[in-house]
Amino acid sequence: MNMNTATAKRDSASSARVATEVITASTSRDCHNHYRSVAVELMQPEIIRAVRERFNSSSESTHSNTHKLLLKALWRYTGVPTENIAIAPDVATIMAGLICNAQRDFDAITCVGPISQDTLRLTRTPIKVIPSLVDSSNEEISDALSESTQVLYLASPNVTSGEVYTVTQIRRILNGAGSALVIVDESLFEYCNATCAKLLEEFSNLIILRTFAEAFGLGNSQVAYALGDKERIQSLNNHIQPELTECDDLIAATIALGRQDVMHRIVNTICENRIYLTALLRRLGAEIILSPADFVLLKISNPEMALEILSPQGVTFCEFEYKGESQGFLRIPVGNDRYCRAIVAALTRCPREYYQTTIASRNKSKTDYTHKHKAHHNNTQYQYITNTEEIQR
Questions:
Q1: Is the pLDDT of residue 77 over 70?
Q2: What angle do CA 306, 308, 309 make, to 5 degrees?
Q3: Going by C-beta distance under 8 Å and a sequence separation of 6 or more, which residues neighbour residue 12?
Q4: Model pTM score
């Protein structure tokens, strides 16, 4: 064995240890992200095992090689050519690059509401919030988007309300946006199989954002990607500098894409636990709105005390228009069954009048839950696929 080969293998073994440590740390359970423990429990062992095997069987894992491997894996996963894909450390980095590419004479990004604090941190620039466009006509969309709109951002599913935009609705928005850049954040799309990727061939001003931090269970691992027009993606790459994404994170994301069976198990488990959590909360008399993603919404009349008790569990407060009026909700992430029981136990420490509905509503909630529960178990396919046809229209 020559000296170069020995050095390469030694470096490879060292990189394998570092990669394992990085992945373990990025998916560790702290008080802020332990609700993701479903993903952590299922995906982390697969990632670590595969990282060790890959480094042990390969003497060379340069950043360029791992970047190309991930691009090819994303091409197979999304069906989008590699030249139409950009990889970055996180979604915020992609947003910053897109804003730099946009015209510089705009005052703010137009965000379709409702928005969360995460969205505010994501844009890193002044924003103008407009109401939801889910059920808007072409005329209403045109009225909502002014001539000065340069960048339009919306999330589908919406990370606050859970609203999902169909392909037809996104097409209406793109037609109404004119030449403005339309950014659709699909970070949670694996939970409902809702994507507007088919519109990329029609509209050069459409950019789709996705991450590995949710359904793929990589926690805080720093990998995100964008899908879009070839020229826009090339320009975006010049700004975001793909080499800033850690090699270890690129490898972890590539391996996760190769274990989509584990991702499906994660999504299916979250969907089952979402029903379980909803049942527990409705037994307390709470009014719950089911989302198509990894959270539920609990109607609340006094959020201050509830948040004081529940915020350590990752629960946040949001307010948006529902049934024609502005209402307040607790956004409760769905975790494993232990976490679901912990949420209910914490909620019982709040005065019941803050979250209880009337007896009639409680009985109706039980009926609604029973129907959904039976429908779920009558269909052994992954639950998030049930509305695919409607979403793709």
A1: yes
A2: 70
A3: 55, 56, 58, 59, 60, 61
A4: 0.81
